[in-house]
Amino acid sequence: MLVAWPAAAAPRRDPAQPYRSLDVLAEVLAYIQNSYVDETKEQDLVQGAVEGMLQRLDPYSVLLRPDVYRAIRDETTGEFDGVGLEVSQVADGIVVVSPLADSPAERAGILAGDRIVAVDGSPTKEMPVGEATRRMKGAAGSQVVLTIERAGLKEPRVFTLVRDHVRTTSVDWRLLDRGAGTAYVRIRTFQDRTDRELRQALDGARKEIGGPIQGLILDLRNNPGGLLDQAVRVADRFLSKGVIVTTEARGKQPEVEEAHEKDTEPGYPVVLLVNRGSASASEIVAGALQDQGRAVLVGSQTFGKGSVQTVVELDDGSALKLTVARYFTPSHRSIQDRGVTPDVPVAAVDGSPPSSGTPQMGHPDGATHPDPQLDRAIDLLRAARIFRGPGAGTP
Which residue numbers are catalytic? Predict the structure, then answer.
C-alpha cells in the first residue's frame, strides 16, 4: 500500500466552540478538498456527510435534495413528474411501500414489498433513499430502469419505466348496491384535500342512493400514507368520541388527538380493507377505527410505519426529513415495525394488489381479476356481521 502524506496540515478549528466533535468533520472536509486526487465540490461532500449521518438513525430520516424536496411538495398537492412509487429504506436496500394508482410503476406491475436493487444499473444496497428517489424522478417522457427482486421470483426482473406527469385523485367511490344502500370508497393517499374529497364522495353516494348510506367499504389498500392531519380528520369523520391517535416525542408531553361530534357520519357498518401497502397515515386510520370498534378490518398485515416525520427546509433549498415522534393507536399499540393486524385475515391472490381498473356495480375494483379481500368485505356487509362500537355516530 502506498501512502503519500499531505504537503500541508488542514486548518484546525477553535476547540472551545460548541459541537466540538464537528471539528473532525471539518478537518476531513479540508483534507479532501486540499489533497484528494480529483477535484471535489464542497456541497456534494457536505450533502454526502449529512446523508451518511442520517442513515445511522432510521429509514425515514433523510436529506431531501432540492429537486426531490420540490417533487415531494408537489406530491402532496396530487401532481408531480416521476414513476409514482412510495419507497422506504431497509437494511440492505430500497423497498416499495406502494405504487401510486394509475402511475407508470403500477401500470408496469411493480408491487408493494418489491425490493429495488438497482436504479439505472446503480446498486441501491448502500444508496440513501433520498438519492434513490432523486434518480427515479425526472421529466415526463424520460426513461428509468429499475431492477426488482420479488418473493417467488428466482431472478431479479428489469422494468423500463417511462416517467409521466402523475395526476392523482385522493378519493374514488362507487355504489355497491343502490337498493341496499351500500357504497365503496377508496382513499389512495392522504393529500391536503383528502378529507374534503371523502366528504364529497359520501355525499355523492347518499345522493345516488336517494337516502342514507346503509353500509360502507373503506379501501386503504396500497395507500402509502401522507399527511398526518388528514388521517386524523378522516378517522374523526367516523368517530364521535374517543382517542384517534397519540404521538409521543422525546422530552415532550404526549399529544392526544380526539374525535369530535361535529360532522360525524351516521353509525352505519364499515368494513376497512388493508394490505402490505397500507402504511403510515393509513395505519393511523385503521388502528383508530379498529380500536374504537367502528370498523372491521379485512385483508393482510399492514406495512408497519408508526413514526412521524417533520420536514425542515434548509438554506440551500434542500430539506431535512427527520423522525420526531412515534404514534400509538387508541389502545396504545405501537405500529412501528409491526403493522396493524386485520380482524379477518384474507390473502390476496398471488400477492397482487388491487388494480385501478374501472369499478363495476357490485365489484368496485373491477371484475378483471379475483379480489378475495373485497369479496369477503362485501359478504360481511351483506350478512350484517358488523357491530356498532362506542365511538360510532348516532344513526
Answer: 280, 291, 305
